[in-house]
Amino acid sequence: MNLREQLTQLLTLAYVFLSAFVAWKALGLVTNSHSPIVVVLSGSMLPAFDRGDILLLWNRDQQARVGDIVVYEIADKSIPIVHRVLREHHSTEKQLLLTKGDNNMQDDLPLYAKGQLYLNQKTDLVGTAKFFFPKLGYVTILLTENQYFKFGLLGLMGISAVLTSE
């Protein structure tokens, strides 16, 4: 393979990654969420959502309502949590929410930051779940939890690259 073909392949790969990045950022702007798509990682929302379901979030609502399924992040914790709004309190300037997983026995108070009694709708919410796609995110779970799957997939991609370059 000559230099021109190698550069063409490199530019094509860069175009694919750049296109995915631009699509992600555009979706983030439309939904007003820094993470417009999330994967459900646990069974805490059964039977509404199962592990591996992909949720499309929307963060343009003025206030969340009791019964809405929201995704929130807690300071110093990297994994977003998908749970239902159980109770809400609001004033003119802010809305406070208490959440709970449908399959959990108690509310999320132990999950919140130390001393935090409620979630702030403006600062803690990533978005409200509007659509879901069942089981499509299970590949993400396999990649993060199973090192053999991850290395096997990387190996297949390497073998594919070597075989197609000839």
TrEMBL record:
Its main location: endoplasmic reticulum. Signal peptide: none annotated. Its EC number is 3.4.21.89. This is Signal peptidase complex catalytic subunit SEC11. Pfam families: Peptidase_S24. Component of the signal peptidase complex (SPC) composed of a catalytic subunit SEC11 and three accessory subunits SPC1, SPC2 and SPC3. The complex induces a local thinning of the ER membrane which is used to measure the length of the signal peptide (SP) h-region of protein substrates. This ensures the selectivity of the complex towards h-regions shorter than 18-20 amino acids. SPC associates with the translocon complex. Catalytic component of the signal peptidase complex (SPC) which catalyzes the cleavage of N-terminal signal sequences from nascent proteins as they are translocated into the lumen of the endoplasmic reticulum. Specifically cleaves N-terminal signal peptides that contain a hydrophobic alpha-helix (h-region) shorter than 18-20 amino acids. Belongs to the peptidase S26B family. The lineage of its organism: Eukaryota, Fungi, Dikarya, Ascomycota, Saccharomycotina. GO terms for molecular function: serine-type endopeptidase activity; signal peptidase activity. It comes from the Eukaryota. One of its GO terms (biological process) is signal peptide processing. Keywords: Endoplasmic reticulum, Hydrolase, Membrane, Protease, Signal-anchor, Transmembrane, Transmembrane helix. It is a single-pass type II membrane protein. It is an enzyme of class 3 (hydrolase). NCBIfam families: sigpep_I_arch (TIGR02228). PANTHER family: SIGNAL PEPTIDASE COMPLEX CATALYTIC SUBUNIT SEC11. Residues 23-96 form the Peptidase S24/S26A/S26B/S26C domain. It comes from Australozyma saopauloensis.
